[in-house]
Amino acid sequence: MNEALMISNALLWVAVLAALIGLFALARQIGVLYERVAPMGALMIDTGPKVGEPAPSFELPTLTGNARVRIGGAADKSTLLFFLSPTCPVCKKLLPILRSVNETERSWLRVVLASDGEQPEHLAFYEKADLKPFPYLLSQDLGIGFHVGKLPYAVLMDEQGRITAKGLVNSREQLESLFTAKELGVASVQDFIDHQHDHQRA
């Protein structure tokens, strides 16, 4: 009887140890998976003016012609220049997020929309999407100056007119990653994550 009890007790301890080992292995795999699916920042394409460099300078009329907007150079606030198109569904999906950013971050940031093409199409889009809170610039030279090839694309400039972050943005997280990169003083959030991983491996 005692022998059977001892055997069952030993088997129970073996089972407990196996469960602990399995739990540890599972926790480790979850950690690896988390690293692999870590939030990606805005996709920075290595063309055009680089992060840390002065942005190209422009002074352009707004779409409605009631004001002129200066891009580049010193300013009272940082500038988020957001390139979009009336035919881009992702751009339209991000408009409510831009409205929210425009309201909550207005103390330090101005949001400027930019595109190119025919004015009537953009005026219709401007009215339908109710974009009156934003300066809206229509200029092919602006897109060329920043080497914009795909949309939606955003460039964040500081008060001195230097580019602090840029890239393709398809979600709120990618848009906000530009602000995070500025706060961290890095070229992009992805660069920061990669440096952290390199530091951990070293």
UniProtKB/TrEMBL annotation:
GO terms for cellular component: membrane. Transmembrane segments: none annotated. It is a single-pass membrane protein. Residues 49-184 form the Thioredoxin domain. It comes from the Bacteria. May be specifically involved in the processing, transport, and/or maturation of the MADH beta-subunit. This is Methylamine utilization protein MauD. The gene is mauD.
